[in-house]
Amino acid sequence: MDAAVNKFLEEGGEYVILGGGDGTISTHVPKIIEQKALLGVLPTGTGNAFARDLNIPTAVGPAARVLAQKNEQLVDIGLWDEKVFLNLATVGATSKIADALDPSQKRTLGFAAYLAALAKIVTKVRPFHLEMVLDGQQHEMEAVQWVLGNGRYHAGPFELSPDATLDEGTLHGYAVVGNSVASLLKYGAAMTLGRHLDAKCVHGFSAREGSLTCRPARRVVLDGELSTRTPGKFRVQNAALRVVTG
User: Of the four listed, 112, 214, 216, 224, which is most buried by Cβ atoms within 10 Å?
Assistant: First the structure.
């Protein structure tokens, strides 16, 4: 699909509709921005958080009708060491979940496959010391999970920040603070109820730019895909991408 999309854009294609999850779609965003094309998202992935932020229905028929209307908006993108993420950059437990995911279960079970992967890895998660700089201000803590996002939703229907939007020029995130797996279990229990942001172990933050260093170093997951390792720098690129919204 990569070659076909690139060829379409290089030949002057002005409106490209991509089917898939956040990770699949984000790989094409640099070329779409370079060619100043319009992106339509057909949410056929597992979480589809970026599409949810765009008010695109998850059912193919209703989504296609929205995409046919071509209501256009400029939205932000996130950059981790200049690599694009549309929805989320994470460090900690999510890298082990990505390792444990069964691709066939992901296709058949959807979000439930992530819960199955979490059950496999929960006793293997180790806390780490993180140092983050947020718009010039330094913060340090012990954590088991660190999440940075662009938009309101992550992991499907769960809120990253209730007031976040895709066009405000700010990234939002949180750290699951603690030095034991118990913090992760408390966070997971609260998340199933949609109350994770109120959990005592969750430390929220926001920034336009910053950096993250972990001891020991941790792998970074961008839009659900294992990508690189800490340390790294991140920033928001405001009004960078033309998209169709519902």
Answer: 224
